[in-house]
Amino acid sequence: MRGGQPPASPPTSGGKPPQAPTETTLDTDTRNRMRIERFHIIDSTLREGEQFALAHFTPEQKLQIAQALDDFGVDYMELTSPLASPQSAADLRLMASRPRSFRLLTHVRCNHDDAQLAIDTGVDGVDVLFATSSALRTVSHGYSIDEIIEIGASVVRRITDAGLEARFSSEDSFRSDPDDLLRIYRAIDKARPARVGLADTVGVATPRQVYELVSMVRRNVECDIEFHAHNDTGCAIANALAALEAGASHIDVTVLGIGERNGIVPLGGMIARLLTLQPELVERYDLEMLPQIDAMVAEILGIEVPFNTPVTAANAFHHKAGMHTKAVLADPHAYEVMDPGRFGLERQILAGHRLVGRHAIRDRAALLGIAFDDDQLRAVTNEVKRRSDDGPLANDELDALLMHWAVTKEGVG
Ligand code: HCA
Ligand code: CU
Predict the structure, then answer these.
(1) How many CA atoms does the CB half-sphere of 79 hold within 13 Å?
(2) Which are the catalytic amino acids?
């Protein structure tokens, strides 16, 4: 419409004419479509997470992690296949024998022997996985699409006949032929699995591709859709969101995002993503447990919680630059999209550094019971900047400096 008159509204039989998007308005249809109906967490810390290079969980650690995630309120936990090792099988059986609020899943290859062994452990559901891309079909199992359908459907039936939830996933979905995928999912859907899963096994998908593929599957199956996103290109959370917007309802996560290579969707990041969009989707989880859960798994792994982890990084709610601290002191929303209190955390205003502004110094001084006038405040702020040019001042150094100024009122020294 650039340079011309907007077209006349089409005649209507009353009410408002439909609003077409223009260059300067947002497409309201698109925004409405983005509303997410359902969100369920499948925590795979004890399956995908075990595939992280640094992970080796003892039976006690598995129970400890499961207990914390149960208290947090995850809907499902997926544990390593009983075929992986004797201890893995024992751990899975032990978990299956214990009281829990989440539904317990294990993850096996899509064949009858594996599925039966999984069923026999006492789990609530079995996740089966079949490679569907032509590359993997050739080098991995050599089955045709028709054979995948036949085997997949009968394995799903075996699991559901045993009274368990069945989930069928195609490995490397985004490098599989979409027509093949559709044929497979439609046929599997007739065997009545609880879910079909799409897996971005190599973390190569973009949010738009995820939206399109999941939308297509959504239109073609009746069962729920699960999505599993690797983070090789840093898109895991964004891709999971796109999957939810397109009609997926179950997202695979792990604590801190641990998994093969650099992992999958992190629990905390997924929660943060949804909390800022549709808080009602995550309100049933005990969000205040997130910091301790991330810290516990980091400790078990022998690592720090990474500095850039959403929510639980040590500095996730620390404000530093003068412009930021001024605004945050007036209204935290200025630079916080989530209230740290929601996670049992506190914000911090950093003041002992050369980027500091007067407002942060006034705030720190007030904590010490000191009220500087405007001239003093300007002078002491400049002094903090001068001193911290050599490196940040620790809180006690900063406090000593402020006290000294308060006493001498001229800042000698
Ligand atoms: C793998 C398998 C998997 C399976 C995902 C799923 C993947 O470790 O390669 O069953 O949904 O990323 O494809 O984790
Ligand atoms: Cu994976």
Answers:
(1) 32
(2) 324
Tens digit of each residue's pLDDT (9 = 90 or more) over 336-382: 999 999 999 999 999 999 999 999 999 999 999 999 999 999 999 99
pLDDT for position 6: 43
The CATH code of the domain at 34-301 is 3.20.20.70
SS3 per-residue string spanning 287-322: HHHHHHHHHHHHHHHCCCCCCCCCCCCCCCCEECCH
Helix (H/G/I), strand (E/B), else coil: 246: coil
CA distance 340 to 281: 18
Specify burial of residue 354 (Cβ count, 10 A radius: 0-12, 13-18, 19+). middle
CB atoms closer than 10 angstroms to residue 145: 18
Average pLDDT, the chain: 93
User: Does 8 have pLDDT greater than 50?
Assistant: no
pLDDT in tens, 397-408: 999 999 999 998
User: Can you give the residue ranges of every domain in the chain?
Assistant: 34-301, 318-408
Pair of tokens at residue 168: 């069928």
Q: Checking DSSP bridges between strand 40-43 and strand 76-79, what pairing results, if any?
A: parallel
Contacts of 259 (CB under 8 A, 6+ apart): 44, 48, 49, 51, 52, 230
Handedness of CA 172, 178, 181, 185 (dihedral sign): positive
pTM of the model: 0.92
Q: Is 178 helix (H, G, I), strand (E, B) or coil?
A: helix
Q: Nearest ligand, CA of residue 200?
A: 1
Share of the chain above pLDDT 70, in %: 93
Helix boundaries (H) for 130-235:
134-136, 145-161, 178-189, 207-220
Of ligand 1's listed atoms, the one at least distance from the Cα of 51 is 8
Does domain 318-408 fall under CATH 1.10.10? My reply is: no
Using CA atoms, how far apart are residues 157 and 73, in angstroms rounded to an integer? 29
With a Cβ cut-off of 6 Å, ligand 1 is lined by 48, 51, 107, 127, 129, 169, 171, 197, 199, 201, 228, 230, 260
369 CA → ligand 1 middle, Å: 57
